[in-house]
Amino acid sequence: MRVVGVRMLTRSRSRSRGPGDPRTPRGGEEEAAPLRTSEAAAEGRKSRCPVKAQRLTVAYEEDTEGGTGESTRSPEVPGWQPQDWQQQLANIRTMRSGKDAPVDQLGAEHCYDLDAPPKVQRLQVLLSLMLSSQTKDQVTAGAMQRLRARGLTVDSILQTDDHTLGTLIYPVGFWRTKVKYIKQTCAILQQRYGGDIPGSVAELVALPGVGPKMAHLAMALAWGTVSGIAVDTHVHRIANRLRWTKKVTKSPEETRIALEEWLPRALWGEINGLLVGFGQQTCLPVRPRCQGCLNRTLCPAAVGP
Ligand code: SF4
Predict the structure, then answer these.
(1) Ligand 1 center–CA 1 separation, angstroms
(2) Ligand 1 cavity residues, CB under 6 Å
(3) Which among 153, 131, 114, 106 has a CA at the least distance from the CA of 210?
(4) Which atom of ligand 1 lies at the shortest distance from residue 301's CA?
(5) Domains of the chain: residue spans and CATH
(6) Contact 252, 232 (CB under 8 A)
(7) Which key words tag this protein in UniProt (predicted)?
(8) Which atom number of ligand 1 is nearest to the Cα of residue 290?
(9) Annotated active-site residue in 213, 246, 247, 250
(10) Crossing angle of helices 162-169/137-149, nearest 10°?
(11) Lowest CB count within 10 Å: 34, 97, 141, 255, which one?
């Protein structure tokens, strides 16, 4: 999953609703560019990313007792920065310029119905993020296609028995657990949020099966707000290989905190999609393709000649 093709132009201390919000005017320059995905093409329908080519607001809320989950760090004048990170980042942008990784075609921003009401679109973004954990993008997209073919809303999920729901989402990773989490989450969304998804990281991570990475991506994709860096296993692995963390980190959440301490905020929304695709195509988990990597002379973890 990713946040790509977006510009962060505004910084605000209060959360601003994104284009997916019904209170935000749609149309004009705020209108998202249509996306074409294999699944949408198969249905003869269009999909789009709610925030692609749109303005993203960076939310920096005061951290409250118990925390909001949204960063209040100020890395504009960092005390430490990784050596060569700007050149490494520029090289990754160059290697990713083709936008031809699985995440570029099948990420969460490509998995919701264009024609659905905004709150249903946001629900579908969240559900695709929940399905995507420990699952290849192709498998997630297939599961979303099957769910959407039946009409994917909070009510439709709650009216579907667990066995049928499991059949629809199989073979996503941990599908049995995800059936349980999706049902529980949809019940909460119906009871507390009128069938919509909540608009804060703190509320999102309180939902069953929703972790920080999903919450930050949901904030960006569904609400148009960059609340933090979305760190999955690709971002976690690559950040450590490039020594983008001051010391070795042991979990994606630890990596997120380490990155947010120095990476300029203007890059937070870009980094997930950039590194996920790079991790899918070049900096593979096993046997990374260092010979073809533009960073091979700058990377402490480069292998081979
Ligand atoms: S040189 Fe190898 S390990 Fe380093 S970023 Fe490139 S692919 Fe990854």
Answers:
(1) 21
(2) 241-242, 282-283, 288-290, 293, 295-296, 299, 301-302
(3) 131
(4) 3
(5) 3-292 (1.10.340.30)
(6) yes
(7) 4Fe-4S, DNA damage, DNA repair, Glycosidase, Hydrolase, Iron, Iron-sulfur, Lyase, Metal-binding, Mitochondrion, Nucleus, Transit peptide
(8) 2
(9) 213
(10) 130
(11) 97
Place of tokens 């593979």: 284
pLDDT (tens place) for every residue of the chain, 305 residues total = 343 333 332 333 333 333 343 333 222 222 222 222 333 333 333 334 443 434 444 443 333 333 445 555 555 555 899 999 999 999 999 999 999 999 998 888 889 999 999 999 999 999 999 999 999 999 999 999 999 999 999 999 999 999 999 999 999 999 999 999 999 999 999 999 999 999 999 999 999 999 999 999 999 999 999 999 999 999 999 999 999 999 999 999 999 999 999 999 999 999 999 999 999 999 999 999 999 999 999 999 998 77
Strands 55-59 and 225-226: parallel
| Whether residue 213 lies in the annotated active site | yes
